[in-house]
């Protein structure tokens, strides 16, 4: 994908959000044949992140907002990659729904790795914590991609 194609794929972004959005620094190095989805924190806008994933045959991108504050819990669970992380490494992210629902302020949220590194986390050969799902790496990759697509579809209202 080109930079232009990624920006055209945003479903829930305002014109202002698109104007200030930044791609990850390593975007030119992304190997699209080996990328199930692309998630990144905006390098210039603290608390903002993005996910681009294929939904129903088309790439769709969404803008995420990270909730302010920190949790006092010791461990937290990422709902996308299903890994246990130290409490400060998982955060609540919300996405304004696409279309009319988003215009009226409706959003959806979930707990995600704070640095949006789910794509890398599921590729680790060993689980990050003893109580994680102990499935094969391939299954973890496939299941994470399905959960990401499902979350993006929910933002779309599908």
Written account of the structure:
- The structure is a single chain.
- With 158 residues, the protein is α+β, with helices and mostly antiparallel strands.
- It has helices at residues 3-8, 15-20, 100-103, 118-121, 137-156, and strands at residues 37-41, 48-55, 58-66, 75-77, 84-86, 90-96, 107-113.
- The longest helix is centred in the C-terminal third of the chain and has 20 residues, at 137-156.
- The radius of gyration is 15 Å and the shape is globular.
- The protein starts with a helix and ends with a helix.
- The mean pLDDT is 87.
The SS-based structural class is alpha+beta
Radius of gyration: 15 Å
Terminal-residue CA separation: 24 Å
**Order of strands across the widest beta sheet?**
1-2-3-6-7
Give the key terms.
single chain, 158 residues, alpha+beta, five-stranded antiparallel beta sheet, two-stranded antiparallel ribbon, 27% strand, globular
């Amino acid at each position: 994908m080109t930079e232009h194609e990624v920006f055209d794929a945003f479903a829930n972004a305002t014109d202002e959000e698109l104007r200030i959005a930044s791609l990850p620094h390593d975007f030119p190095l992304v190997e699209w044949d080996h990328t199930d989805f692309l998630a990144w924190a905006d390098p210039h806008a603290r608390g903002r992140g993005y996910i681009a994933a294929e939904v129903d045959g088309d790439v769709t991108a969404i803008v995420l907002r990270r909730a302010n504050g920190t949790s006092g819990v010791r461990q937290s669970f990422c709902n996308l990659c299903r890994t246990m992380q130290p409490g400060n490494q998982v955060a609540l992210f919300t996405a304004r729904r696409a279309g009319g629902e988003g215009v009226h302020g409706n959003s959806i949220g979930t707990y995600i790795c704070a640095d949006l590194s789910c794509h890398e986390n599921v590729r680790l050969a060993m689980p990050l914590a003893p109580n994680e799902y102990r499935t094969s790496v391939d299954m973890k990759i496939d299941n994470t991609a399905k959960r990401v697509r499902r979350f993006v579809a929910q933002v779309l209202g599908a």
